[in-house]
Amino acid sequence: MHFISMSWIEVYHSAWTKFCDGMASATTLDEVMEVHEAYLSSIQRQCFVASDKLWALIASRVKTILGLALDFHNVEQTLGTGGTAASVRARCEMELDGIEKQFDECVVFLLRILSFKLNVGHFPHLADLVTRINYNHYYMSDTGSFTAIPGPRTRQ
Q1: Is CB count within 10 Å lower at the N or C end of the chain?
Q2: pTM score > 0.85 for this model?
Q3: pLDDT at residue number 6
């Protein structure tokens, strides 16, 4: 939900502000059309629905990560509602380990893509996304590169 809220506030608000400024300064119909097209293009890029292949790859990874979060939630629900039998607990632990590995790999891949994109252009919304994903540098190695966390984490 936080991701959706961030998208709504930061994407639409910033795009709308630029749109209003552009419309206020437009003096011809062509300028109005250009401002409107730039507005739509900005929203599409920032919501990862632009037709560019790289934006589609970013969107795909974000959707995969959100899907893995839902998978994690479902397994945790199973554990919390009667997953005390040894066989159920063992199956759930194996599923969690697999989800964790996939999640870490997807996040690191996404961070690498986003970092590449940030190195070749100015995309403030991507910089914000990288900060939100890697807030405490959890996926950062000592050398400054992105890395998946080795080994499973301890679960309570």
Answers
A1: C
A2: no
A3: 60
